[in-house]
Design a protein that fits this description.
With 418 residues, this protein is of the alpha/beta class. It has two domains: 225 residues, Rossmann fold, CATH 3.40.50; 177 residues, Glycogen Phosphorylase B (Rossmann fold). 43% of the residues lie in helices and 15% in strands. The strands form two sheets. It has a seven-stranded parallel beta sheet, sandwiched between helices. A six-stranded parallel beta sheet has the order 10-9-8-11-12-13, with helices on both faces. Helix 12 links the parallel strand 11 and strand 12. The longest helix is centred in the first third of the chain and has 19 residues.
Length: 418
């Protein structure tokens, strides 16, 4: 007999009490808290069966709000129709993000920590993964497994196939750090691939995806952030902001050199670099040395990873990204939603968001002089900057909203279960 339980009503994340949260369950059968959370998830999913809702397992690498896929995850859980879908979020890594757990549970999702793929080499990692697979089977017979993980590894897809779950994954990047044959295998095992941009859709097809196997769905921003953009004050600090991990592919060295040129005519400016330095410690150190060699170290702030970049963006004069490869970068979407003028490298991922001279300014990749000139123009000509931010905000509001993303994803789920 299945006992019905009360399903909490969907609430706005801001209304959730952050103190009423619980730690993430550990991936251990002997841990009491893990057993409790597993049983809660099992009861929730059994209730979904009774109500004939589609049972969806969304897998993510972490729950940290400072990194992707946090916004995609929250948007899906918040806007997927509760009467049609019952959602469980499985995080790969143990996390201290109590706030994220509280938000997800307040929106009606259950949260578990499961090793759905290896997090390192060796037999021990594989054993933990096999244990994670058993944990997923113990939770429920999910209908769909939707991966928001960044890895090209097909391991998760193998388990979904063995568990008779429809497997769909978001192709979120250009596979810069992945192996082509791994991505080919993952695509071959997937029932459907969600590309977040035209460029990632082309990448999927280049790696063997059938045309009908790929659907393009843009990442969506929360309506609240768009509202904050409308209400953003006009007082800005004299700062240029770059957001992104301190790795070579983000080309922060281009930003530093362009900023050094800009200081000759705008000596009161500061450059802020907000991003994880630990992915490539040697490169992060090289960036600091570059600042010292150019004599601008006192004008450059290395902020490290920021839990919330929104306040930084609200106070910035211009947002700058010199990256050499992107899917559709969240940082640019956020900047445009908050009405910050954007100067970006002219690459496909940025062209998905910006028409040069309409929603922002695009500069040829690696053109230091071009970046410095574009930044100076936006700083000196307020009318041009205001025109760009207005068009940029309207573009995000029209095409990159979280409710649109969830509605299109719901159609994908229906197509897989019909």
């Amino acid at each position: 007999m299945i006992l019905p339980i009360a399903i909490p009503e969907r609430r706005d994340p801001k209304s959730i009490e952050r103190g009423a949260t619980h730690p993430l369950p550990k991936d251990s059968r002997t841990d009491p808290q893990s057993q409790l959370n597993t049983e809660r998830a099992r009861v929730t999913v059994r209730t979904a069966i009774a109500h004939r809702r589609t049972r969806v397992l969304i897998t993510v690498p972490h729950l940290h709000s400072a990194g992707s896929p946090y916004r995609e995850m929250i948007g899906l859980v918040r806007f997927l129709p509760r009467e049609l879908f019952d959602v469980t979020v499985a995080t790969l890594r143990e996390s201290q993000s109590e706030e994220a757990r509280g938000i997800l549970e307040g929106l009606g999702a259950h949260v578990v920590q499961v090793r759905f793929r290896p997090t390192g080499p060796g037999p021990a990692a594989l054993v933990r993964t096999l244990s994670g697979w058993r944990s997923i089977r113990d939770l429920a017979p999910f209908d769909i497994q939707h991966s928001l993980d960044f890895s090209s590894s097909p391991i998760e897809a193998i388990d979904a196939r063995l568990g008779r779950r429809k497997f769909v994954f978001n192709l979120r990047n250009m596979n810069e750090n992945g192996h082509p044959w791994l991505l080919r295998s993952k695509i071959r095992l997937a029932h459907l691939v969600i590309a977040i941009s035209k460029d990632t859709a082309r990448l999927a097809r280049a790696h063997g995806a059938r045309r009908e196997q790929v659907v393009t769905i843009h990442n969506g921003i929360e309506p609240e952030l768009l509202a904050e953009g409308l209400e953003a004050g006009k007082q800005k600090q004299r700062t240029i902001l770059c957001v992104g991990a301190l790795i070579p592919g983000k080309r922060h060295s281009d930003a530093i050199r362009a900023f050094a040129q800009l200081l000759k005519t705008h000596p009161d400016l500061r450059l802020q670099l907000a991003g994880q330095p630990s992915y490539d410690v040697a490169h992060a150190h090289h960036l600091r040395i570059t600042c010292e060699s150019l004599g601008i170290a006192s004008r450059v702030d290395f902020l490290g990873i920021s839990r919330d970049v929104v306040p930084l963006m609200k106070s910035a004069s211009v947002f700058l990204t010199c990256s050499q490869s992107e899917g559709v970068p969240w940082s640019v979407v956020e900047a445009m939603a908050l009405r910050i003028p954007v100067v970006a490298s002219d690459i496909p991922g940025h062209r998905e968001l910006i028409v040069d001279g309409r929603e922002g300014t695009l500069v040829p990749l690696g053109d230091i002089d071009g970046f410095a000139t574009a930044l100076g123009r936006l700083l000196d000509c307020r009318a041009v900057a205001e025109s760009l931010v207005e068009n940029g905000w309207r573009r995000i509001e029209a095409e990159f909203r979280a409710d649109q993303m969830a509605a299109q994803t719901a159609e994908v789920y229906r197509s897989l279960t019909s």
